[in-house]
Amino acid sequence: MKSKKNLYFLFPSVVLIWGALLYQFMGSFPKETTSNVLASKEFISDFEYKQEQEFSLNSIDRDPFLGKSYLKASPPNPKIKKSSPSIPWPKIHYLGSVSDKEGLNGIEIIIIDGHQNLFKIGEIKSDITLISTQDNSVTLKYKGQIKKFSM
């Protein structure tokens, strides 16, 4: 019997609380009422535009609390490299190398302007010097300029 007494008390209180919540929730929506507002053709505005003030920030030279200076050191002037005038190279094509069984004495096959030439390291032919060789490339020097050619 005791549980029925609690039920008679709790059920109406729950219904009242839910009713109050729904009333508050539904009351927050606007009601659909129409109002007759006459639209006037004149638009009066008392708005005055004030021009914005312009200001500039001064650079900070020193930290007021730490006393450190923020002056930036001027970057050093870059040294201008004088490039030598480009000299047109002859048409060069590297074909490969021929060497003995040990691979110590290699001879490089290079075509210069359509003529096949055989070079050893340090050899000079038609102003072209063979400086060094790698696996599939050679480094040549022509009138002071150095270039690398590959197969």
What series of H and E elements makes up the topology? HEEEEEEE
CATH architecture of the domain at 92-150: Roll
Q: Using only CA atoms, what is the Rg?
A: 47 Å
**Beta strand %:** 25-35%
Subunit arrangement of the protein: single chain
Number of strands: 7
CATH C-level category of the domain at 92-150: Mainly Beta
Distance between the termini: 105 Å
- Spans of 5+ residues with little confidence (pLDDT < 50)? none
Helix content: 10-25%
Report the CATH topology name of the domain at 92-150. SH3 type barrels
Strand order of the largest sheet: 4-5-6-7
Q: Assign the structural class, choosing from mainly alpha, mainly beta, alpha/beta, alpha+beta, or little secondary structure.
A: alpha+beta
Summed over residues and divided by their number, the pLDDT gives a mean of 82
DSSP summary: helix tally = 1
Biggest sheet, open or closed, and with what strands and sense? 4 strands, antiparallel
Based on Cα principal axes, name the global outline.
elongated
Summarize the structure in words:
With 151 residues, the protein is of the alpha+beta class. Helix content is 17%, strand content 26%. It contains 1 helix and 7 strands, in the order αβββββββ. A 4-stranded antiparallel β-sheet has the order 4-5-6-7, with no helix packed on it. A 3-stranded antiparallel β-sheet has the order 1-2-3, with no helix packed on it. 4% of the residues are buried. The mean pLDDT is 82. The chain crosses the membrane at residues 7-26. Keywords: Membrane, Transmembrane, Transmembrane helix.
How do the helices and strands line up, and which of them pair or pack?
Layout lengths: L1 H26 L64 E8 L6 E7 L2 E5 L4 E2 L2 E6 L3 E6 L2 E6 L1
Antiparallel strand pairs: 1-2, 2-3, 4-5, 5-6, 6-7
Keywords: Membrane, Transmembrane, Transmembrane helix
